[in-house]
Amino acid sequence: MAAEGVIGVLGNLLVCFVILRVKFLHSMTNYLLVNLAVADMLLCLQEFFLYLMYSDISLLDFVPTSVGGRELYCRLLGSDFLAWALVYASAYNLCVVTLERYVAIVHPLQYERKLTATRMKSLIALIWVISFLFSSPYLFTIESSTDPDQACSKLKDHHQEFQMLLKVFTFFMGYLLPITLMSLAYYKIQVTLKRQAKALNLRHARAAAYDLVIARQRLVSMLMIVLGALIILWTPVYTAILVCAYPLHKGLISFCDSDTYEFIVEFMDFFHYFNSVINPIIYELKYKKFRKGVKVAFCSCVKRKWNNRVDIEMVPK
């Protein structure tokens, strides 16, 4: 998990660096991808520190000894509050990327009026606030321990009904809602793009207009791959969360309290975090303009060549 965290941090840092450095990548869509990369990078960084907490070089040795410091440590880190906040941020920032493409393609005449820079900044800020609010119940699932050899302790059985509701809430708000909204939006986008391409073919439109539709299709296809990867990598862990949401002391699903289940959950957590690692790889493989941006950012000779072509290549391909 340490290697996964480091690779994820470096990959998403690369996305931020390339998009912010290369001028022909300065577009609303790409800025939103930067915001998504920041959420994924922080999530991978959190995963790395989580590994250190339970490794031989344990961060638990650095837990504050004061009651207030230990309580703060347990509530923010030990409870997974920060991890879930970043998971929410990743999912909903991808929703914002989808919203931007949806308005640009399905309602292009309203794009400039609806998606102003000020509104998008406010929306992004709102997404981050909502992400931390949605994860705030995790603050109440753990507390500092009175045992000097243990930093934190989970709240006991009389709070299991609360934890059951929290797991159901996490499944619907962190997984089902964003995936449903994005799936419906991409379906509508694909229908619109196919209709536009067919209309341009019938009218024998100029190549530039048809190329614009093709470029949009390629970008949307790349974003749909990002969504597909999220669904594939997140579904197992969220399914486990929902299946084992019922209080264990009721004894209905004894498997959820077994060592085998704990091992499977750790395995699924690896894929859950891997979603934040794979996005930069998808950009490199499927986003032609991002690949060109990487060359421009790291090769001065290619940069000089592309500086003369910035004005004619404004559409992501």
Automatic annotation (TrEMBL):
<feature type="transmembrane region" description="Helical">
    <location>
        <begin position="31"/>
        <end position="54"/>
    </location>
</feature>
<feature type="transmembrane region" description="Helical">
    <location>
        <begin position="222"/>
        <end position="248"/>
    </location>
</feature>
<keyword id="KW-0472">Membrane</keyword>
<dbReference type="InterPro" id="IPR017452">
    <property type="entry name" value="GPCR_Rhodpsn_7TM"/>
</dbReference>
<dbReference type="Pfam" id="PF00001">
    <property type="entry name" value="7tm_1"/>
</dbReference>
<dbReference type="InterPro" id="IPR000276">
    <property type="entry name" value="GPCR_Rhodpsn"/>
</dbReference>
<keyword id="KW-0297">G-protein coupled receptor</keyword>
<feature type="transmembrane region" description="Helical">
    <location>
        <begin position="162"/>
        <end position="187"/>
    </location>
</feature>
<keyword id="KW-0675">Receptor</keyword>
<feature type="transmembrane region" description="Helical">
    <location>
        <begin position="123"/>
        <end position="142"/>
    </location>
</feature>
<keyword id="KW-1133">Transmembrane helix</keyword>
<keyword id="KW-0807">Transducer</keyword>
<dbReference type="GO" id="GO:0004930">
    <property type="term" value="F:G protein-coupled receptor activity"/>
</dbReference>
<comment type="similarity">
    <text>Belongs to the G-protein coupled receptor 1 family.</text>
</comment>
<feature type="transmembrane region" description="Helical">
    <location>
        <begin position="81"/>
        <end position="103"/>
    </location>
</feature>
<protein>
    <recommendedName>
        <fullName>G-protein coupled receptors family 1 profile domain-containing protein</fullName>
    </recommendedName>
</protein>
<feature type="transmembrane region" description="Helical">
    <location>
        <begin position="6"/>
        <end position="24"/>
    </location>
</feature>
<feature type="domain" description="G-protein coupled receptors family 1 profile">
    <location>
        <begin position="11"/>
        <end position="283"/>
    </location>
</feature>
<keyword id="KW-0812">Transmembrane</keyword>
<dbReference type="GO" id="GO:0016020">
    <property type="term" value="C:membrane"/>
</dbReference>
